[in-house]
Amino acid sequence: MFLNCHSFHSLRYGTLSVEELVQQAHSLGIKELVLTDINTITAIYDFKKECEKIGIKPIPGIEVRKENKLLYIAIAKEFSGIGEVNKVLTDHNCHGNELSETAPAFKNVFIVYPIDNIPLKLKENEFIGVREEELNLLIRPEFNRLIPKMVVLQPVTFTTKKEYNLHRILRAIDNNTLLSKLNEQYVCGKSEYFKSTDFIIKAFQRYPDIIKNTKKLLRACSFEFDFEKVKNKQYYTKSKESDVKLLRRLAYLGLKKRYGKDHEIAKVRVEKELKVIDELNFCSYFLITWDIVRYSNRMGFMHVGRGSGANSIVSYCIGITDICPLELDLYFERFLNLNRKSPPDFDIDWSWQNRDTILEYIFNRYGKDHVAFCGTNVEFKYKSRFREVGKAFGLPKDELDDLTKKPMEVHETNSVVQTIHKYVRLMERFPNQRSMHACGILISEEPITTYSALEMPPKGFPIVQFDMNVAEDIKLEKFDILSQRGLGTIKDTVDLIKKTRGIDVDIRDTRISKDEEKANEYLAIGRTIGCFYIESPAMRGLLRRLKCDNYKILVAASSIIRPGVAQSGMMREYIFRHNHPDQFQYFHSVFEEHLEETYGIMVYQEDVIKIAQYFGGLSLADGDILRRAMSGKDRSIKKLQEVKANFFKSCKDKGHSLELTAEAYRQIESFAGYSFCKAHSASYAVESYQSLYLKVYYPLEFMVSVINNQGGFYRTEVYIHEAKMSGGNIQVPCVNSSDFQTTLKGKDIFLGLMLLEGLGETVAHAIVEERERNGDYKSLQDFIKRIPIGIETIQTLIFIGAFRFTGKQKNELLVEVRVLLVNFKPENRGLMLIEEPVQEFKLPELKRENFEDAFDEIELIGFPVSCSPFDLLQTKYRGSVFVKDLLKFHKKQVKMLAYLIARKHVPTKKGEMYFGTWIDANGDYFDTAHFPDSLKQYGFQGGGCYLLLGTVEVDYHFPTITIHKMAKMPMIPDPRYSYDKEKQYDIHRQIKEDVSMTSRQPYPQIHEIELPRSAFDKK
């Protein structure tokens, strides 16, 4: 009887999750159920699984609406019918086709029209839905004659009165209106909830034909769907046989290139992998990925193949990855094995500049009807729930801000706020919108609309209406096509080196990108600002603590820094064991045997699988469940609990003490969602090392490329400082020497026009293009004639010093521009350029104060270039101790003057603390720790220079200063406003700092873990 059920995937309409919908139907003894979410199939696959668990016949459908108007309900006779409706919705969503008031000629779809949208003629597969409250209309002749084509329409949208009110709030949110002004036509009927089948039959007892039609329709529908059949493109060539043949040929060509002719170990590994790939029908998956990479190489793009795919020697041989599995003892089974039920995937990174080109190739090469992005369901976040519900109740902005910024416990207790709380709680986990998965691409054998309608988000690539978990469930495996800035930096640096020095750097040559003496020296002292993944303060501190002087330690460091290892307390333990390899004992012989490389500590996902298998006695399948839980991919908490119980039981059977078992599992559990597989760490480490090599030998080219790729962990100012420390002469933008991006000319680094606040991108490009067409600008007058911009933009260029080539002071140029523009007519720009010579103006000498330029620079690009921030202080004091000497002051108190670069929020059980990163007057970096007690009295006061008093703590070669007191140092007043005392300190507030906030739980301390360095009881 229930042909029209909504879940909360009918966005901002339905109030029930799929599980709640199905459970409610089951509790009423309902045996057949149709899910018809509004314009979406998001939930139909989960719906099928939930129904079949408890013996309900699932039927998929879609409620088709145009804006707020219900046009018809489409119910699939068989699964192919869903594809027909998907096609219509896709044409509407992606191609702008209008949804017609009546349904097109579907082959395998039943159509149910509401009584207010009956077409002139009903097709055989079309019916009219009648609600209980509409039965009195059937006495009218125009409806009475249609009774043979009528079915029961009992929509389901909510359950309780509270949920009905929630529905109204959702509708107000959707229509951006107040609850009090919500038009009732946008709201569902008050009877849209489950009723017993007997109740409905009794209500319709005078119309047995309607009951009969409804039952007949339900009987005629089925939802046959094979969850186990792989839906991806089946073959890269024309058949499986030719796919196998091609992959084998490519693998052996690559084997010869990577390992030479007679590497028997590599050959045996290739054969073993090819056999498994063939048996599991993954040849096409490998070949499609190889094809995408081949296109990338042809275009000259950099890529990194990472993730578990780098465990495969075949992927290494055919060029998908650049990690040798033999060198790092990576086992293929972590990526693909005959026992593994879940599909693997390759994660491949491209530069942020090139990714769209790669995506366009994939869509064109494999057909736009067969390719789409994975979707993702974006839930109402905590703040947005309060903001949206509060808006619906009509709260003013300041009250909304108060609700969103404060925790619920400290909100006011008035009745409106309490009502808002009630509905905010109900909306937890509610989807708010569908969006694009960050990287997952689906390539299907059948047209993609077979499985989903497509939507077109603002980014311009179509998405399916379900997320990666559903895609995985239905065996539509994704290709992860990612982007990052680090690869853009490497590629741009190599290109710039070729341009400036005429040197070709083969950055993929592992002889230089994995082991190079000077690069290793930089690594060991954490001199890695600008380098992919290893530039953050925490990572630089870890590198120094480990004295990381080679690629293999870097691989471990890339995973140790992850929150999972830190959360377990094992990052600190790893540092200790690395520095004192003779001062610890292994927990157990299994840890020694399988984790010797990492001192008996679980660092990678594979380590957890090893411990689960060899220590805990779990099967490979259960080990994989743990692995998936760690990577955040497993949705079954219940299954995870079963595995935990099995782990403890098996450990007990093996004779392990409860203490040892509990500690081993605690470490496993702490990894959830945060650990890397070893191959992933190795891939990151290669890219980190490549960028480090370029920084070491070509520092100016490297830092210019970092700036142009919009940096990484830090703001642009820090990278410009780093370039300066590497010998670069930093020049503010100049209309004759600067391009849109930052450029390198000898040792002069001309900042790009893109960094200039207040200068539009179009104008910046126009300045460069006009100069390239017609030569340098000869004067300010010449510039005005050639570039169509207003006086405010020209003033911005004058203030930053972009016309310094004229030899005139800024004050003089400002007067000149006003004289020039008094009678200037833009329409005569081209004519004047031909006819009029450049005029010379004689003006009185206008002097500027020292540091006026620096304050112009702070205002227009955010930081001073012509001097150091220290030069702008009122004091001449520069500190009693400098970074170069800090190691000598262990446990001693020091006073330092420093410029704030960044601070990171760290939660502790005693309150919030911060780690700070600074530079001293010599330009060297150092780090500080600010504990809650100190911060209460001596907190941060924004960007700028501070006087610091603290105690130096040298922790494994790495000095940190624990701050007791600090004070922000006053800068000189802005000399540009010597006549206006009120404005003399305005610009100081623009001095920036990088602040990163963390919401995680506090990490445990050593004494809380109670981890002995001697062996556990092994009895």
From TrEMBL:
GO MF term list: DNA-directed DNA polymerase activity
- Whether Coiled coil counts among this entry's keywords is no
**Keyword rRNA-binding attributed:** no
This entry's Enzyme Commission designation comes to 2.7.7.7
Task: Quote the catalytic activity from the record.
Answer: DNA(n) + a 2'-deoxyribonucleoside 5'-triphosphate = DNA(n+1) + diphosphate
Q: Which Gene3D superfamilies match?
A: 1.10.150.870, Metal-dependent hydrolases (3.20.20.140)
According to the entry, every stretch annotated as the Polymerase/histidinol phosphatase N-terminal domain falls at 1-68
Against SMART domains, the record matches this protein to:
POLIIIAc
Residues annotated as transmembrane = none
Domain of life, source organism: Bacteria
**Top EC class, one word:** transferase
Tell me which UniProt keywords the record has, alphabetically.
Answer: DNA replication, DNA-directed DNA polymerase, Nucleotidyltransferase, Transferase
Q: Which InterPro entries does the record cross-reference, listed alphabetically?
A: DNA_pol3_alpha_NTPase_dom, DNA_pol3_finger, DnaE2/DnaE/PolC, DNAPol_HHH, PHP_dom, Pol/His_phosphatase_N, Pol/histidinol_Pase-like, RuvA_2-like
Which named protein is this?
Answer: DNA-directed DNA polymerase
Q: State the organism of origin.
A: Chryseobacterium terrae
